[in-house]
Sequence to fold (297 residues):
Amino acid sequence: MKNISLILITILSFNFSFSQEINGNIIINSESVNQTNNSVFINLENSISNFINNSVWSNENYSELEKINLNILFSIISYSNNNYVVNIEFQASRPVLNSSYSTPVFTFLEKNFQFEHIEFEPIIYKDNQFESKLSSLLAFYTNIIIGLDHNSYILNSGNNFYNVSKNILNYTNQNNIPGWNSSYNGGKLNKFWLIESLTSKDSTEFSDFVYNYHVNGLDLMYEDILSAKKNIASSISTLKPLKRRNPNSILVKIIFDSKSDEINDIFSGGSFFDVSSVVSDLNYLSPFFSNKWNSIR
Fold:
């Protein structure tokens, strides 16, 4: 897939079989629904799992080591006559070079998503037209996640996947599908502004961060911990112009919703340099997590 494939194969001397991009784990939580027959939810879980894991989302080969780990939790709010209202939490991570560790790259909550799905009916997606609410949503987020994964290895290499997601959003809006416009969910943290931000010129610092944090930071840990931590601190600092231009940036929120625990662990585990500057940057960029940042020593 990427140049990193050759590095991993050379260093670790594993034999890989090539397969799809996603290693998806789908969970349907129906505890809030009074439904005596839970088989419908089990079958929905299986249908979504087959769709995510067995679809080919790009023309590139991913080895088992390169696969994106994706957890999707569907919390069912209501269900009646094949109609669902759910909250969906996406959590994606990618492997770190020369490590068994998987680093989070995307955490996002889709609230009050409504769709219809008939039991045992296959989930169909076509990239040039609208098929269903469920397939559109899953394809939308999956392409964003693959784009982020690409960008975490090669700068700006995820843009084509972001554009696919933007096309999905355009098709749904053309079909007047609710939940995809700019005002959904209060007009801030929604699909429209997520993909609008990722595909705008305003995302330069975000893309630079995703690349440098991983390639020059986490992937360097096995070789030079001090340089890796300094590079991570530098990558965090480069987000400040984005924050100044857009104090409520959805991209900044995504970073720290995904990375706050990891960043806290990185700099709490013996940084070997003065962390006061990075703590100051973190408090400016994401004051919501100030308790974590201020515990860094």
About this structure: The chain has two domains: 3-167, 208-293. The chain has a mean pLDDT of 90. Residues 208-293 form one domain. The two ends are 39 Å apart (CA to CA).
